[in-house]
């Protein structure tokens, strides 16, 4: 009701100009209808809402424009900075000239390699090389490469990331025998193969730890080693020192127990071709030793005869004079039979829990290996069953 009175007076009261110095009022107009007053109030509200909406729209438009303008400015600035940075990178146009041997050492990163390339005037700047490595998402492989001076950085990255172009490096692989290492050294230009053979077949004086018993087998850490223009003693010492450091890091006990761990690990790695079985094989070895059984491992017989397991003959299996013949002699063989990798060593440290005494790789293609369980009689029966399965699979494969 109050609002109606206010509207009435605001809409029907009119002030007139001063005439003759005295204020006067026109006679009041007839009052308007309530319907007309409500209509006018609605019009005023609509005008107010329209103005508010228009103001909000203007604010939003201005804000959105400012946001996109800011983003566009940032993109433009970033593009300019990237362009300036690319322009600032100094690089040779290539293809280069002359010939220079360049070595990437094991464990070197892109920055260190880049600095060495700059020092030999192969690339013009570190930034050019590291940028090319990042752009190609390349992996730099150890080795000695034949390059030119003043090459384009991207061309250098292409070569250093191609392992087939690397030379002068010896790779010691997990599960590899010392005899294989000697054979691989002979294939490397610049390596004194005779010196390596003499050293690796010797007693390891001043290089091997005492628990090795004068044999390098098992004591060469797998990895890549530069052998070019280096003495055999320096390279082999690097391998043995790396092995000792790795065993220390893995918590392998020292002394004779360390040699036993390497021995067991080397057998496990030679007997099966899948890491998932290492822990079971090492448990089989422990179980058989505890029960006074022979290990019965063909891999040790093959090692003692310097042949592959597939080349074992019945005469070899019957030869008790071979100290590595674990079918005829109880206990571990005199030395490890290869240089085992980390996974096999871990399995020898902590074998899986089980009563297994026998195992057979029933499928040579897939590597599927089955282990026996139960009483001795039950396990012997299972073993015969698995041998039959192996023969059947092998005959079908042929």
Structural write-up:
The record marks 271 as: Important for catalytic activity. With 398 residues, the chain is mainly α. The protein has four domains: 1-10 and 31-88, no CATH class; 97-165, Endolytic murein transglycosylase (Dna Ligase, domain 1, 2-Layer Sandwich), CATH 3.30.1490; 170-249, no CATH class; 265-397, no CATH class. Helix content is 50%, strand content 7%. The protein has helices spanning 2-12, 34-88, 110-119, 126-136, 153-160, 178-185, 193-200, 232-249, 256-271, 278-290, 298-304, 314-318, 342-349, 376-397; strands spanning 97-104, 143-149, 169-172, 223-226, 359-361, 369-371. A two-stranded antiparallel ribbon has the order 1-2. A hairpin with a 7-residue loop joins strand 5 (359-361) and strand 6.
